Amino acid sequence: MYGTGDVGFFDRIAPLYDLAMPPADGDALAAGFDRATRPIDRLLDVGGGSGRAAAAVTGPDRLVVDVSRPMLRRARTVRGLSAVAGDAGRLPVADGAVDAVLVVDAFHHLPAQAAAIDEAARVLAPGGVFVVREFDPTHPLGRLLVAAEHAIGMGSRFRSPDDLAAALDASGFDAVVVDRGFGYTVAGVR
Ligand SMILES: C[S@@+](CC[C@H](N)C(=O)[O-])C[C@H]1O[C@@H](n2cnc3c(N)ncnc32)[C@H](O)[C@@H]1O
Question: How many domains does the chain have?
């Protein structure tokens, strides 16, 4: 079975999610993809929800994976993206099948973060890149976000940029912090 995490929340708010969220930062994602040492033809958007982040990426074939079926339905019907149900800790994708893995605003919701990093490494081809866009819990706005998500009962576990980059390194990636701030980007080359 899937780890439940905060998924019930996203199941409920799926019809409203895109009304509340700004577009994903395509420039930050592109800066992460630039770290890859192979062409990016196949992109996997993990915890991709309604496809908001995948929609900000043009070029590669895009597949959205998420545990929330209502969110995936929107990725398909609103954005016309390919989307499959799956847990970040056990991806429904073959070894070495993609050139980039993306996780945007979702890593802190994952109940099995170490498994998600290992799965990204497994499904990436050599030279592919794992790009994570997250929120820094040590930033003043990050502290507010942590408090707000915990206040509504989420199990979010946020990590600082350096902590996340170190976790990727420990799983065999060559990781860098691409940009810092309330929102930050870490990219790890496989
Ligand atoms: C804040 S939304 C972000 C969605 C999308 N990445 C975006 O940027 O709009 C977090 C997503 O993580 C998904 N999620 C939570 N736990 C997950 C898991 N174990 N595996 C896959 N997706 C998960 C939720 O269902 C939700 O769609």
Answer: 1
